[in-house]
Write a structure and sequence with these properties.
The structure holds two protein chains of two kinds.
Chain A lengths: L24 H6 L14 E7 L5 E7 L1 H4 L4 E5 L11 E4 L2 E4 H8 L4 E2 L5 E7 L2 H10 L1 E6 L6 H5 L25 E9 L2 H7 L2 E9 L11 E6 L5 E5 L4 H12 L6 E5 L15 H11 L3 E4 L2 H7 L6 E9 L5 E13 L6 H7 L9 E9 L13 H19 L3 H8 L18 H9 L12 E10 L4 E9 L5 E5 L7 H13 L6 E5 L16 H28 L6 E4 L2 E4 L3 H4 L3 E2 H6 L1 H4 L3 E9 L5 E11 L6 E11 L6 H20 L30 E6 L20 H14 L10 H10 L6
Parallel strand pairs in A: 1-14, 12-13, 16-17, 20-21, 27-28
Antiparallel strand pairs in A: 1-7, 2-6, 2-8, 3-7, 4-5, 9-17, 10-15, 11-12, 11-14, 15-16, 18-26, 19-20, 19-25, 22-23, 23-24, 26-27
Chain B lengths: L3 E7 L2 E7 L5 H8 L18 E4 L2 E4 L12 E3 L12 H8 L9 H14 L5 H7 L11 H16 L1
Parallel strand pairs in B: 1-5
Antiparallel strand pairs in B: 1-2, 3-4, 3-5
Helix pairs in contact in B: 2-5
The chains are: A alpha+beta, B alpha+beta.
Chain lengths: 764, 158
């Protein structure tokens, strides 16, 4: 039973690497697929949240008596319904979380810390009654001074969000609290010595605006709690096991009594890795003893979920005159929102990861201010720091008169490079992506006036982690696959191909589902580009069990020794002389007679997946600036990224294309706009301007495949890296088009027009 | 105030329902008629996830009131396939991986069908501007636009 590295599968069929039709697709093109808001239960109530109108206010009192007296109101919850939690940091994917903060974020306690912060929630027999009840809740606030900007929040004397927040990571421990939650740092070599060797040193400061993940499906949850505490929850989430853990912890429930089903999920991008409505819906249902359904409005999504950090980043890089990078310094100040936990740590680690530099020093600050608590957003933290570095790399290329691809190639991280954040890279594909870009017709096409071309590379670690899948061989030989990581972008298609290849059965005989928390062992969430990587690894484990079991059954039936049989091409086959006596038995043959050979057939892969291979990408973009309006139009875009091995090329391309367009939005238009009153002014899709179809061209996707040796098929996670390079690539193209180095995102038309006017360039 | 009694046609079938004045057509479709294929992404007409046809015209059902549709003809994603036969756009979206999470897909399909009915040979530019009222955050639009163009070409050949 030879287990081989994917490329030489022994069975006859090869679905892996082909563009199969997704098994869940039919429901999604017919409107049948059930997303978060599509679930209903008999007797359900509607839950609504009362949110703080103030960015910063002490909550003196909450009087719910008038609201409770309104006919049709069945339950109201406030801070009094949640026990306080001790301060304790636990890993949450690529970030850390603290239940002391989580309990305060789902329901304000001492203070409301941002506009939109939940203060109370109501369950009523109709939406209209719930809305009316919210107006009858009387909250007494003591309005406090607020602070929105990260640099202002760091200043001594800034309004203080938490009087028990003392900067971690500084010696000695500060004697006064501040808004700086944490200082982090990585060092490699001696950066000062490095700068002394440099012939060219460039130092710039950059600013990026907070942007929202922008999933089209708002958060939604439906909970029902019975009198004995048994709890069921349907919710749109990237990780229903994590939701279960959070809700059990926040509400003091036994995990075994909480069954969470992940509905189809309408986009997440990291923003659905945390809980908002879920604990509220359960708490309301527990009180009302009826099912409670809650759905956020788009305004609530903008004001009270996500976004990712805005930041201020200072980068200083040194290179020799022939282009070798000798030193890289950066200082990152990331907004965390109202509670600590910005993705500054990964931002620090990623900043210089694409390059082989001997001397690196990166410092990061995690800073709270009166904004919604940030959530993960696709490669959390990395696009910001890498944008700043890639901008400076471009400037170095220009200053030295070097080709930007050649400069990157000269300094590219490759197998054996020691990354500043610690590890030595194994086989990686950065050079291959640079080469792929260089060979494109796109790179070699001339540009006209007001057009510009930019290139940038990007890196993301990727993770593995705890994963369970089960494979059941049904009586008719069909296969049921149960995975526990919500499928956001074609996961079921990828995993189904792996099952079909492993067991040698037709693709359409494998039916995948995403199991609920009561049906399958623990799964960490869909995030960190882990679900296809870890899921396929776990399937290989589960299939191994089935193959071993079928071989053992065959030995019994054929009175043979283990070395006389092998599993190949979907069947147990007799070897040598035995082959003259008995015929091979397929998976379906065993299925039909399972009762006579040992009972039900199946396997469960339970793994803590290790060996996630980092994925590098390089993006190339052409744009044209309209000198009269300052609007930049993306003309052409090419992505090259290392997938290790693309299980499903179309969905890998989809990740590249989608990430690139999210990056285009981040670079050119998207931003949270606050007034002096600390209130968000653009909490809707009309004013928060995400790219639409007419804003973007086709996105050419080049799949580079440098196999990850730690994965049975060579897979690397691909979901996150695609959003890392666009910011830098587009900024570099803007410089190329206008001669102006923009150091603030987004490069929106008013900003660009002003810069053109300042330089007297706004005449075509 | 008493609810409005409305009679209309949805996907060829007669329906009648009661609605409050402020209920949108989307509320009625999803909550009263149990047609949850039309999605609510913004309720302000910006995302297009609730796109339906009203008397042959493409509209955001979140911008139409339930009581406005009396006597009118509504077509939703649920009526797009005819029996077991998918509409060519539905088939092509599946084959071309033109969806990732799928929440925007019903809106894109309804809007694309409306486009091809009035313009069987759209340019890429025309497809992109027609679909500019439908937000997708997953795909970057590439495979959606390609699927619509390819479907149009296939349908022209018959």
């Amino acid at each position: 039973m030879a287990e081989t590295n994917g490329h030489s599968r022994t069975n006859g069929q090869h679905y892996v690497g082909t563009r199969t039709v997704r098994p869940d697709g039919m429901d999604k093109v017919t409107g049948r697929a059930r997303f978060g808001a599509d679930f209903n239960l008999p007797g359900q109530l509607i839950g609504r949240v009362l949110r703080s109108p103030h960015p910063h206010a002490r909550i003196i009192a909450i009087d719910t008596s008038k609201a409770l007296a309104l006919p049709g109101v069945k339950a109201i919850i406030t801070r009094d319904d949640f026990a306080d939690q001790p301060s304790e940091f636990i890993p949450a994917g690529e970030m850390m979380m603290n239940y002391k903060d989580v309990v305060r974020n789902v329901m304000a306690r001492e203070k409301a810390l941002y506009e939109g912060h939940p203060v109370a929630a109501v369950a009523a027999t109709s939406t209209a009654i719930a809305r009316k009840a919210l107006k009858l809740i009387d909250v007494t606030y003591e309005v406090l001074p607020h602070v929105i900007d990260v640099v202002l929040a760091m200043r001594p004397g800034a309004p203080l969000l938490h009087d028990d927040l003392f900067t971690a990571g500084v010696e000695p421990r500060p004697d006064k609290p501040s808004n700086i939650a944490k200082r982090v740092e990585i060092k490699l070599g001696d950066v000062e010595a490095g700068f002394k060797k440099a012939d060219v040193v460039i130092e710039r400061e950059f600013k990026t605006a907070p942007v929202h993940q922008g999933y089209i499906e708002p958060h939604a949850a439906l909970a029902t709690v019975s009198e004995d505490g048994a709890t069921e929850l349907w919710t749109t989430t990237q990780g229903h096991f994590i939701v279960r853990a959070h809700c059990a912890r926040l509400l003091g429930l036994d995990m075994g009594k909480v069954r969470v089903t992940a509905t189809e999920i309408g986009g997440g991008f990291g923003g659905k890795t945390v809980v908002y409505l879920e604990p509220l819906a359960i708490a309301l249902s527990r009180k009302a003893k009826r099912p409670v359904k809650m759905v956020m409005s788009r305004e609530e999504v903008f004001k009270a979920s996500g976004p990712t950090s805005g930041a201020t980043v200072r980068v200083k890089m040194g290179a020799t005159k022939d282009g070798k990078f000798v030193a890289g310094f950066a200082e990152l100040k990331y907004q965390a929102g109202a509670f600590q936990g910005s993705p500054v740590q990964p931002g620090v680690m990623c900043a210089y990861a694409p390059y082989d530099i001997e001397n690196v020093h990166v410092i990061g600050y995690d800073v709270v201010s009166n904004r919604p608590k940030v959530a993960a957003y696709r490669a959390p933290g990395a696009p910001i720091s890498e944008y700043a570095v890639e901008s400076v790399v471009d400037e170095i290329a220009k200053k030295l008169g070097l080709d930007p691809i050649e400069l990157r190639m000269m300094n590219a991280a490759r197998e054996g490079t020691k990354a500043a954040y610690g590890p030595k890279f194994g086989p990686i594909g950065l050079e291959e992506t640079l080469n792929a870009i260089k060979k494109t017709e796109h790179w070699n096409t001339p540009l006209r006036k007001w057009q510009g071309r930019g290139v940038a590379s990007g890196f993301w670690f990727n993770i593995g982690g705890e994963t369970t899948v089960s494979l059941t061989v049904n009586e008719d030989g069909t296969i049921s696959l149960m995975a526990g990581t919500p499928d956001i972008g074609g996961l079921r298609a990828s995993l189904t191909s792996v099952v079909a290849d492993e067991l040698g059965v037709p693709y359409d005989k494998v039916r995948p589902i995403i199991g609920d928390t009561g049906s399958l062992g623990f799964n960490f969430l869909t995030g960190g580009s882990r679900s296809a990587f870890s899921g396929s690894m776990a399937i290989v484990e589960a299939a191994k069990q089935i193959k071993a079991d079928l071989c053992a059954r065959a030995c019994k039936l054929w009175e043979a020794k283990p070395d006389q049989v092998e599993f190949k091409d979907g069947a147990v086959r007799p070897l040598g002389a035995l082959g003259e006596k008995v015929k091979p038995m397929t998976v379906a043959d065993f299925a039909k007679t399972a009762g006579k050979t040992g009972g039900p057939i199946g396997g469960v892969g339970r793994i803590n997946a290790q060996g996630a291979g980092p994925s590098f990408g390089t993006h190339l973009v052409d744009l044209e600036v309209d000198p009269e309006t300052g609007r930049a139009t993306i003309l052409r875009y090419t992505v090259a990224q290392d997938a290790g091995r693309a299980l499903h090329p179309a969905y890998v391309e989809g990740q590249y294309q989608g990430g690139a367009v999210q990056g285009i939005g981040w670079a050119l238009n998207e931003e949270y706009v606050y007034g002096d009153d600390g209130k968000l002014q653009n909490a809707g899709f009309l004013d928060y301007r995400m790219p639409v179809a007419s804003d973007v061209p086709m996105i050419d996707a080049i799949l580079v495949e440098v196999a990850n040796p730690k994965h049975p098929y060579g897979v690397r996670g691909v979901g996150e890296t695609p959003i890392v390079p666009p910011l830098g690539a587009i900024a570099n193209a803007m410089e190329n088009a206008t001669g102006i180095r923009f150091t603030e995102l987004p490069m929106s038309p008013p900003k660009v027009l002003k810069a053109l006017k300042d330089k007297g360039l706004n005449k075509a | 105030m008493a609810k409005h009694h409305i009679e209309a046609t949805v996907n060829g079938d007669p329906v009648e329902f009661l609605c409050e004045t402020e209920d949108t057509l989307l509320d009625v479709l999803r909550d009263t008629l149990d047609l949850t294929g039309s999605k609510e992404g913004c309720s302000s007409g910006d995302c297009g996830a609730c796109s339906v046809m009203l008397d042959g015209r493409l509209v955001c059902s979140c911008l139409v009131l339930g009581c406005e549709v009396s006597g009118r003809k509504i077509e939703t994603i649920e009526g797009m396939a005819k029996g077991e036969a998918l509409h060519p756009l539905q088939r092509r979206f599946l084959e071309a991986a033109a969806l990732q999470c799928g929440i925007c897909t019903p809106g894109f399909l309804v809007a694309s069908k409306a486009l091809l009915e009035q313009n069987p040979n759209p340019s890429e530019h025309e497809v992109r501007f027609w679909l500019a009222g439908n937000l997708c955050r997953c795909t970057g639009y590439d495979k959606i636009v390609t699927a619509v163009m390819d479907t149009a070409a296939a349908m022209r050949k018959g």
